Amino acid sequence: MKKTLTLIICVVLSAFLVIGCAGNGNGGGGNDTVDTGADTTDDAGTAGDDTERDGPIRVGFAIKVQDSPYFVSLVEALIEEVESFGWEISVLDANNDTTREAENIETFITQGKDLIFVNSVEPYAVIPSINAAADAGIGVINLDSGVGEGAREITTVYSDNLQNGRLVGLAYADERGDEEIVSIILSGARGNVAGRERRVGLFAGIIEGRLGVSEAEAWDLAEAFEDELQSTGSATNEDANFIVRGQGWGAWTEEEGLAAAEDLITANRDLTTVLGENDQMLFGAMTALDNAGIEGVNIVAAADGAKRAFDLIREGRYFATGLNSPYLVAQVGAEIARQILEDGVDMWSFPSPTLTNPAAVTIVNVDDYYDYGF
So what's the pLDDT on residue 105? Predict the structure, then answer.
């Protein structure tokens, strides 16, 4: 079903541009192409080329992998968006291989695509490919994954990890009132920037909500809390009556989330809360809690947006998750591309990054956001 989020796209873009909006985060093989009828001859102009074209606008999407519902939905959403413009799109899957990713982007450059979307395997390995596209006059929009300094991309579109986490933390602080928060946290991968942003956002929101401090002060306190967690394996803010007893590394998956949670849960049977950086790991934690016979523990995700989590929120079994929607990312990215390729907006006029609007999805508003889930 097509998601009609024109208003949200307007809000995201209008903060940066004086442009009117009218109207109403292992599925395929390495070089498998989603065939949408795209011609592979080099007959289309490049981004910003205002010469008359012989056919429709043609774009490519170099995706790193399709091994989860999020990435499958991201591809499907982008195809739906650009085809609604009357454009043609080809998708090449790198299967998490940086060499194959470079080959895929080079294929799009050789084919003379008007614009290339990228979801990169690794932020620095992709820089030469992005810059090669720019040298050929082809703009690159990154979706969901950031790139390293020195890449000449148009922009990177992704969810606001910090604010998603903060809003969820604020909602949970309000839910708990003055009651102690005794928690563990499940994290995706060491050194992952998005994961760190999500958990620090959670810490900031909880601390801000419980202490009544300014947002700026909450960020400082959350950074200190994070530093303590990484240096000692646990962290406490006594004034906020908030403790994280341990951190497990769940590789973003339900299976690894279960394994990471088991020992922590067994050692901390008095938990009030399991925090996490995505929904999948927390699904594993819920199984670990069931296996240990522990009930009444709140499940709180900094960001994700799986419909399975939304269903659990509806049932009252899952407190909240932050809005990390592949549909929003695809639609904002596609709208930027449309402004460049159809309206003639300078591709270098867009800010980077471009963040989608954050939200804490709870039982109060889950029905409003349900169709944005994946």
Answer: 98
Question: Of 34-38, 153-157, 285-289, which range is least confident?
Answer: 34-38
Sheet strand arrangement including 181-187? 235-237, 242-249, 181-187, 273-276, 298-301
Q: How would residue 11 be classed by pLDDT, with cut points 50, 70 and 90?
A: very low
Burial code (b: 16+ CB inside 10 Å, e: under 16) for 2-33 equals: ebebeebbbebbeeeeeeebeeebeebebeeb
Quick check: 243 and 275 in contact, CB under 8 A? no
Percent of the chain with pLDDT over 90: 80
Asked if residue 216 has pLDDT above 60, the reply is yes
The predicted model scores a pTM of: 0.80
Residue 157 has pLDDT above 70, yes or no: yes
User: For residues 304 and 353, is the Cβ–Cβ distance under 8 A?
Assistant: no
pLDDT band at residue 146 using 50, 70 and 90 as cut-offs: confident
Mean pLDDT, to the nearest integer, of 277-289? 97
Report the DSSP beta bridge partners of residue 88.
Answer: 58
Please determine, for residue 322, whether its predicted confidence score (pLDDT) is greater than 80: yes
3-state secondary structure the chain: CCCCCHHHHHHHHHCCCCCCCCCCCCCCCCCCECCCCCCCCCCCCCCCCCCCCCCCCEEEEEECCCCCHHHHHHHHHHHHHHHHCCCEEEEEECCCCHHHHHHHHHHHHHCCCCEEEEECCCCCCCHHHHHHHHHCCCEEEEECCCCCCCCCCCEEEEECHHHHHHHHHHHHHHHHCCCCEEEEEEECCCCCHHHHHHHHHHHHHHHHHHHCCCHHHHHHHHHHHHHHHHHHCCEEECCCCEEEEEEEECCCCHHHHHHHHHHHHHHCCCCCEEEECCHHHHHHHHHHHHHHCCCCCEEEECCECCHHHHHHHHCCCCCEEEECCHHHHHHHHHHHHHHHHCCCCCHHHCCCCEEECCCEECCCCHHHHHHHCC
